[in-house]
Design a protein that fits this description.
alpha/beta, Rossmann fold, 4-stranded parallel beta sheet, globular, binds iron/sulfur cluster
Length: 386
């Protein structure tokens, strides 16, 4: 009999508000600093090299009602911004010494300012990512921005970040990305072997623990997954899930997509954990290596804009490579980058004859019947009428 990896136990790690693993790390490292990161991508390697613990924050899911955050931000914005702020205001993130926000959208920009004002004892860093990766100025610009991050972290921790320490951290995160890519490779090749909910639980567990621990966890889980007996089902379509790169849908939402008849071969959930699609290039200067990796092999998403033509081509190439039957766009309510991206991609998918379905979610969604009906109809239309 196969021994199943304890995915439910993994899910429980982020499904309450105790942040027990972060507090455990803090207790073991009394002088250590904890730095929160907002999606989509922040170079956790640099935080790790400073001897601090990077903690990926993804809102509060269904766990709290918004009581205080609405007084500081407008209410017609995505849930992740409001609930992350609510977590802070209610004291659930009292272990944080700092926060890093990447420049993904106006909401994240505003949140970084609101954060700095409401948590004056924390170090708050807003990271300006290059808007045009093709520009000849992009690499030096990004290097300068990463060096600004290095200096900020050095001030926070009171210790210098050596090139050697950063190289070592990059190696650990390279291993982490390699393991996550292996999970996704299995999903694409043998989708019955590994569900999206399991993959999600495994990757998300890494947001709260040191990368060394996450690498061990992934290695152990991969051993179990590769030894499973697998039964493929014929009544399922091969689907691609796109649009959930920042705010995360409820786990039940993902479960419903699969139950309604989808093998999800790839997605952009927690995509910052595997943002580089190729190895970080060797370079004497590890800061420059990270900058080049972001600009040359960063995943094409709605928030890493390199022009509509390149964005569409990268997406269609993924659709072709995975031989998907259909695409499900699932984006957070009020997420402008995802909605603009959807309009761009939908038109080209239709021209290419690839069916697509669009769904909107919110963190606090608790009923999924309508989603299930929509997905079942989508699946049947492909299975029986294509
Ligand atoms: S969910 Fe969308 S709008 Fe909200 S912070 Fe993320 S990218 Fe910005």
């Amino acid at each position: 009999m196969n021994r199943r990896f304890p995915f439910e136990e993994l899910r429980d790690r982020w499904s309450d508000l105790s942040f027990a693993e972060v507090r455990r790390w803090r207790a073991q490292h009394p002088d250590g600093k904890v730095v929160g990161t907002f999606p989509v991508w922040v170079p956790a390697e640099v935080i790790h090299a400073a001897g601090a613990l990077p903690v990926g924050l993804y809102g509060a899911g269904t766990l709290i009602d918004i009581e205080y955050a609405d007084a500081r931000m407008q209410s017609f914005i995505c849930s992740i911004a409001r609930s992350t702020l609510e977590l802070g205001l209610r004291g659930y993130l009292d272990f944080l010494d700092g926060m890093v926000f990447p420049s993904i959208c106006d909401v994240a920009r505003n949140l970084s300012g609101v954060w700095a004002r409401n948590f004056p004892r924390q170090w708050v860093f807003y990271m300006h990512l290059p808007e045009n990766p093709e520009s000849r100025h992009a690499v030096p610009y990004m290097v300068a921005e990463l060096r600004r991050l290095v200096r900020g972290l050095e001030d926070l921790t009171g210790r210098p970040i050596s090139a050697e320490a950063l190289r070592r951290s990059i190696e650990l995160y390279e291993e982490n990305r390699r393991l996550i890519r292996t999970l996704y490779h299995i999903k694409a090749e043998e989708p019955a072997r590994l569900s999206t909910c399991e993959t999600y639980a495994l990757v998300r567990a890494g947001s709260l623990i040191p990368v060394e621990e996450h690498n061990r966890l992934l290695t152990e889980a991969l051993g179990e997954i590769q030894g499973r007996d697998v039964h493929h089902r014929r009544d399922r379509i091969r689907a691609l899930l796109e649009g959930s790169f920042c705010e995360q849908p409820p786990l039940d939402f993902l479960w419903v997509l699969e139950e309604a008849g989808c093998y999800i071969l790839d997605d952009d959930l927690l995509v910052g954990r595997r943002f580089f699609e190729a190895a970080v290039p060797p370079a004497e200067d590890p800061v420059e290596a990270l900058a080049v990796a972001y600009l040359r092999s960063g995943r094409s998403t709605a928030i890493r804009y390199d022009g509509p033509a390149r964005r569409v081509e990268a997406f269609l190439e993924r659709v072709r490579r995975l031989r998907v039957d259909g695409v499900i766009f699932a984006y957070a309510k009020f997420c402008d980058p995802a909605q603009f991206d959807y309009v761009l991609l939908k038109e080209r998918l239709e021209k290419a004859g690839v069916p697509c379905l669009v769904l909107e979610f919110e963190e606090k969604m608790t009923t999924f019947e309508a989603v299930q009906n929509q997905v079942e109809t989508f699946v049947e239309s492909i299975l029986f009428y294509s």
